[in-house]
Amino acid sequence: MTEDTAHLTESIQALDDEDNVDIGQAYQLHAPFIARVIEKLTGAGPHVDDLLQETFIVAYKKREQFEKRSALRTWLYGIAKNLCMHHKRGLARFLNFKEKLQSFPSSASQTPDQNLEVSRELQLAESVITSMSFKQREVFVLYELEELEGPEIAELLGIPIGTVWTRLHKARQVFQTKLEKQKLREQSI
User: Fold this and answer.
1) Would you state the pLDDT for residue 103?
2) Which stretches of the chain are assigned E, i.e. beta strand?
3) Helix (H, G, I), strand (E, B), or coil: what is residue 143?
4) Handedness of CA 141, 145, 146, 150 (dihedral sign)
5) Coil, helix or strand for 66?
6) For residue 35, what pLDDT is reported?
7) Among 184, 74, 84, 71, which residue's Cα sits nearest to residue 137?
8) Which residues of the chain have pLDDT under 50?
9) Interacting residues of 31 by C-beta distance below 8 A, sequence separation 6+
10) At what angle do helices 150-157 and 161-188 cross, to 10 degrees?
11) Rounded-to-5 percentages of helix, strand, coil across the chain
12) I want to staple 163 with a disulfide (CB 3.0 to 4.6 A). Which of 7, 117, 157, 159 is the partner?
């Protein structure tokens, strides 16, 4: 290889690197967020790693289609969201709050009865969130559990900010109403 050819090859590679997404770097930067969202949208389990891997495989295959009109994180989220919706269609369960419970520091001052009550409330919340429509659940999870701001959610989902607030409002109403009904049912038993 001549010096001119080597320089030309380096220039082409540099251009190619600029035009395409570096999937390795994208994985390092965004995999933790994408994994958390996948887990909260589909529930904990071995499928989370599979969906995370599939997200980056799809991103790799479609890296030339990324037009940089949105942030890379937004594009990756869109891929993950579509994979989660396909995955959810085949599953009966959603969200495992036990993982969330385990991440909280255990309080030595709580009695076993109090721990049992917390566990029951988390299971109840999981059941209520599972019953929401995917669109409401998606906004609810991103806002309430992932603590993203409304404008960021709007960008991730590709929807107007007003739609984010409408879905969040409806999701909160559904959550409150169903939670109260479930508690009444449990008290009557």
Assistant:
1) 54
2) none
3) helix
4) positive
5) coil
6) 95
7) 84
8) 1-17, 90-98, 100-102
9) 52, 56
10) 100
11) 80, 0, 20
12) 159
CA nearest neighbour of 128 among 59, 184, 181, 54: 181
pLDDT of residue 32: 95
CA–CA gap between residue 77 and residue 184 (Å, rounded): 37
Domains of the chain: 1-96 (1.10.1740.10), 107-189 (1.10.10.10)
Find, among 168, 139, 170, the residue nearest to 156 by Cα.
139
59-77 per-position pLDDT tens digit = 998 888 888 888 899 999 9
The 3-class secondary structure across 81-123, one letter per residue, is: HHHHHHHHHCCCCCCCHHHHHHHCCCCCCCCHHHHHHHHHHHH
State both tokens at 56. Answer: 């980056």
- The backbone region for 58, taken as left when phi is positive above 0, alpha when psi lies in -120 to 50, beta otherwise, is alpha
Q: 172: buried, middle or exposed (CB in 10 Å: 19+, 13-18, 0-12)?
A: middle
Task: Decide if 63 contacts 26 (C-beta within 8 A).
Answer: no
Nearest-5° Cα angle at 85, 49 to 29: 45
Q: What is the pLDDT of residue 89?
A: 54
pLDDT per residue over 103-136, tens digit each? 555 555 677 777 777 777 777 777 788 788 889 9
pLDDT of residue 11: 35
Rg (CA), the chain: 21
